[in-house]
Amino acid sequence: MSTAPMPEFPAGFRWGVSTSAHQIEGAATADGRGPSIWDTFAHSPGRISDGSSGAVACDHYHRHTEDVALLAGLGVDAYRFSIAWPRVQPGGSGVANAAGLDFYDRLVDDLLAAGIDPVATLYHWDLPQPLEDAGGWLNRDTAARFAEYADLTAARLGDRVRLWITLNEPFIHMSLGYGMGVHAPGQMLLFDAFPVAHHQLLGHGLAVAALRANSASPVAIANNYSPVRVLGDSDADRAAGAAYEALHNRLFTDPLLGRGYPEMPGLDPGVVHPGDLETIAAPIDVLGVNYYNPTGVRAAEEGSPLPFDLVPLDGYPRTAFDWPVAPDGLRDLLGWLRDTYGDALPPIEITESGCAYDDVPDAHGQVADPDRIAYLDGHLRALRAAIDDGVDVRGYFVWSLLDNWEWAEGFTKRFGLVHVDYATQRRTPKSSYTWLRDVLAASRDGSAR
């Protein structure tokens, strides 16, 4: 970690933290909530590394008042949470479940009372199981159902939510959930998963219209990006890097910004109907950027089903997920977005950035996490450098407020600024919480450190 003073950020820069519904809420059957694909997936033997589920998670549904107090103590400007589609529409269609929306109504009001902007994500991978039974995101009708859900939710909360995010990381949901089968719903379609990409983006475009009809607040999407590091000097290596960049970074950005789809294997133009690309390219106010690490790529070995091989990057510290800690990748990524999309690029907010470590309370119950502090320090400095490079970045959200249920890894990976004892639900702020609190306080009084 640098000992130099933390550079100041522009006036009005938005500081926040992020969570997602299925990872923290619990209360899996409370107040009429229906099953999601993750409920089904977690109850399939062998799918979750520790055999757990998100049925209780962090019990945020019953403890949100305590968690809002933690947010207020941290001093953030905004809280990015997601709304559980199965809690609002248990069957994935039809009238809203009033009791489900009541919870988010209370959460939003409590955030505003604490002076914290509610930033609501409509979809963080928890598709209602009845929609998956009808084909999930492979089915074009799911895009229409998503727009209906967006309309119902914004009609209730649109006067108070300060920023709407339609989808979280549609690339990860497509690739891990439908392409490789390691996330819900567990399908292994490889490049035949392209309809999932298109229908998510179509749902996004339809939801933008629904949100604007009900709310004057800005609208965004949160994409996962990974700068590509080509390992090798051959034409085949460079072609592999371009193929991976098209898949990971451009597939969910080019069409959003009016460029249509990039050329890539498995892209079936028959899935795209007349008018779809215009719907997808409806203007957005913010591009959410989720950044965790760069990706090493080289030419695929003969017989590989993919046009690239992914290879580890040496020379970086590693997180508990074995991801490289590479703040330089964030600066590179933001420069790539600026150079690639130019004037078509909307203002950016970093909607997720964080790291997992094996944080354990000491004999006094305190949790020191110096590696997370070093991670945040490095990434904030890289972000400030990107702003100095001319990239229009207006916010940074840490993933995550709480240790949580980490999808297929269950409770084995801890990303939180706050430690959660899952047996007792006791919350203990880590040293990174205190560090970030002090950074934010200093940034407000003009003496950033």
TrEMBL record:
Listed GO MF terms: beta-glucosidase activity
Active-site feature positions: E169, E352
Keywords assigned by UniProt, alphabetized: Carbohydrate metabolism, Cellulose degradation, Glycosidase, Hydrolase, Polysaccharide degradation
Chain residues that bind substrate: Q23, H124, N168, Y292, W399, E406, W407
Pfam entry (one): Glyco_hydro_1
Supply one GO CC term from the record: cytosol
So what EC number does this one have?
3.2.1.21
Reactions catalysed, semicolon-separated, are: Hydrolysis of terminal, non-reducing beta-D-glucosyl residues with release of beta-D-glucose
SUPFAM superfamilies associated with the record: (Trans)glycosidases
What Gene Ontology terms for biological process does this UniProt record contain? cellulose catabolic process
**Similarity remark:** Belongs to the glycosyl hydrolase 1 family.
Q: What is this protein called?
A: Beta-glucosidase
Q: Which organism is it from?
A: Micromonospora lupini str. Lupac 08
